Amino acid sequence: MGNCCSDVGGGMAAVGGTAASAATGNQNDAVDMFFKSRGIHGLFSQIELSFSASNLQNRDVFSKSDPMVVVYIKERDGAITEVFRTEVVLNSLNPTWITKYTITYHFEVVQTLLFHVFDVDTQFHNVDVKMLKLEEQQSLGEACCALSEIVIKPNRSLTFDLVRREESVTATRSQHQGKLTVHAEECISSKTTAEMVLRCSDLESKDLFSKSDPFLVISKLVESGISIPVCKTEVLKNDLNPTWKPVFLNIQQDSPLVIECFNFNSNGKHDLIGKVQKSLADLEKLHSGREGENLFLPTPVGHDFQNKILKGKLFVDKFSETVQHTFLDYLAAGFELNFMVAIDFTASNGNPRLPDSLHYIDPSGRLNAYQKAIYEVGEVLQFYDADKRFPAWGFGARPIDGPVSHCFNLNGSSNYCEVEGIRGIMMAYASALFNVSLAGPTLFGHVINKAALIASQSLANDAQKYFVLLIITDGVVTDLQETKDALVKASDLPLSILIVGVGGADFKEMEILDADKGERLESSTGRVASRDIVQFVPFRDVQSKSSSQSKGGEISIVQALLAELPTQFLTYMRSRDIKPST
């Protein structure tokens, strides 16, 4: 089944729903709805995993092993849940399994998978795999990874060395257990999208005192003969020669379509004016030939129906096809997300040596709000950064024997700002707390400009990189206009900014920076941001939501912050016509 959409307000009215406000200007909601239909708003892609193995250990005496793969999901607390089993492949040390595992890929969550290969004993070969007791089977080894580690690979395949849990820790590396390969495919019926502008002429008037109010419904015919609606247009009032806004379809060229033209009635009983049955390829021919197709109307004749050919015609005024690459396509082509972090060291955080400080390092190992934000965001993004060297800065503090700095290297170096891995950020942060004096005020402009400089230099070098700056702060920014200017300028760069507010401050003004909650940002010179690059969330809001959820439905700060990042990435790439190499 394909995806299609047109104007939201008109489309809802067409099926008896509530139309959106008329004050929408010239904005075409069809484009926005199309992108959402492709999974761009909040990335949830269906991934199909397939499995193969090589050089498995032979655990049978008179034949080869009979392997089966069992997949588990590993939770953050270490608990594992079985989710899938392949079929059993008989007598093979190099099996390729047919059964595939489908999982929903969430960008903003670390999805840890455990793969365990078992040798199924001969006496159980006639037992359904779902009924097998795993404790009665022999282990051939296991492997563990995050789903994101698979999808970022150029061929979306990852090969593991299988290990045995019961092996002695002194076992030599030469002990051979075989390898398991996991391959991922994104489940999309078609990435080719057809954009069409449809028009009708000489429609029949169905209303008594006015002209018809026509709209179109496009349906896909399936093998059983049933038509499944996949698209609708807006309603055009009092128009017998209507031209509708563009519609978008992503279905196969030869799929049979039924296009029905209805007259809208507020009671929901819409009158069929006429219809045509064409494939996408047929509609393309109508466009290239600049010809119209007569509508027909099924008319009862005795116990049967005949198609009455009508004067009204359907025209295709525009037909174009484009390939819409997905977020995972860019990852597989080698694009990276590079993580950067900036930490607020202003005095309002409190003395780091006292337990009531937001910067207090608990000897028990319990993370403070700054550490939690660094760890949880970094834990996700680290998989998409090849060298895992992260720029890290502080702002709002006075380094030893120096003036207040609003962008200093967290590692204390005057030459370079990068640290090694998430652990490196944590160590540099803890060290900086005892090497600087907390000061103020809270200024974002310097760190945003620093991140923007790195992004612009990467862009100039044609690097396949997109940058993500995490700013963690306890107070409202005091250089609001300078921050807006920096953000507007940065909106043209491959950069997104995530802001976490910690502590009990009133962050209402901060929401201005997040275009989700207001108008597009404007600079002091009147320039408007080319796109929304900011996502802001108060840490306490996420914590309160988490505490009100069950363990399984916990809302983490990562999910709240990163939900829009794939959208921002794709908006940037598509607006600049940057395509992944195939």
UniProtKB/TrEMBL annotation:
Protein name according to UniProt: Protein BONZAI 1 isoform X3
Keywords: Calcium, Cell membrane, Lipoprotein, Membrane, Metal-binding, Plant defense, Repeat
SMART domains the UniProt entry points to: C2, VWA
Family per similarity comment: Belongs to the copine family.
GO CC term, one of those recorded: plasma membrane
CDD domains from the UniProt entry: C2A_Copine, C2B_Copine, vWA_copine_like
SUPFAM superfamilies per the UniProt record, alphabetical: C2 domain (Calcium/lipid-binding domain, CaLB), vWA-like
Keyword Transmembrane helix among UniProt keywords: no
Protein location: Cell membrane
Matching Pfam families: C2, Copine
Organism, as annotated: Herrania umbratica
InterPro entries to which the protein is assigned, alphabetical: C2_dom, C2_domain_sf, C2B_Copine, Copine, Copine_C, VWF_A, vWFA_dom_sf
Gene Ontology terms: biological process: cellular response to calcium ion; defense response
PROSITE patterns: C2 (PS50004)
Domain C2, chain residue ranges per copy: 27-160, 176-296
Membrane topology (UniProt): Lipid-anchor
GO molecular function list: calcium-dependent phospholipid binding; metal ion binding
Keyword Membrane recorded: yes
